[in-house]
Design brief:
mainly alpha
């Protein structure tokens, strides 16, 4: 009888890795379709200087995130959730909270096989809800939002901080000391304002990881030889 690990790897994760790579590469290729269409159909092409400047601007901001975000999000999202999230977008404000809350509600550990399955279900549900909301929102959203009172529009700017606060609150209860360290690093990075945001994010992420590892080692003691 095959073990749970072999079933998980062969029947669940292996097909997801194949289709995840295929769909992400397809999405990458299709992202070039609109400018190529404009170039071929209407002969609209910016100069080489504009193209280089655009790539430089995108790389300056997104380059560090390309390296940091998969490392920072993977322990919670898992392999299937990582493919789904980076393909669908809205990771930090939708996919990550849904993944974390699904695993917390089921009482499973992040990074485990059970956690990967629950993460997949939570992220899949969020994508379906997103599609439904966007379908309705495209037709009715502009009209509806335009008729909302000004005080509601003012409240929109608090949505993202509220989401981050809820996710942070769920994790900080597991380790108040590490939560205080992460919060302090973020506040210092934003208040001191020595670095651009694309450096601040890696500093906060990896700074918390390093300090968390040191706190963990101090708690459990040196490894036995």
């Amino acid at each position: 009888m095959p073990s749970k690990e072999s079933v998980f790897n062969e029947k669940f994760q292996k097909p997801i890795v194949f289709w995840g790579m295929a769909t992400c590469l397809l999405a990458f290729a299709m992202s070039f379709f609109p400018p190529l269409y404009l170039w071929i159909k209407y002969h609209v092409l910016p100069g080489a200087g504009y193209i280089v400047a655009g790539f430089a601007l995108i790389f300056a901001y997104s380059g560090p995130l390309w390296f940091v975000e998969p490392l920072a999000y993977f322990p919670i999202l898992g392999v299937p959730g990582t493919y789904m999230s980076f393909l669908s977008g809205n990771i930090s404000n939708v996919r990550l909270p849904c993944s974390a809350l699904a695993q917390e509600a089921a009482g499973v550990e992040e990074g485990s096989r059970e956690g990967a399955i629950l993460s997949t279900l939570g992220i899949g549900a969020s994508i379906l809800v997103n599609i439904l909301i966007l379908t309705v929102g495209v037709g009715l959203g502009a009209e509806l939002v335009g008729n909302l009172p000004a005080i509601v529009h003012e409240a929109f700017k608090y949505i993202l901080p509220a989401i981050f606060g809820g996710v942070f609150g769920g994790f900080v209860t597991r380790d108040f000391k590490l939560g205080a360290v992460a919060l302090l690093l973020a506040i210092l990075a934003l208040k001191v304002d020595l670095f651009p945001i694309w450096i601040t994010i890696p500093l906060c992420v990896f700074g918390t990881v390093v300090i968390g590892a040191k706190l963990h080692n101090r708690k459990v003691g040196p490894p036995e030889r």
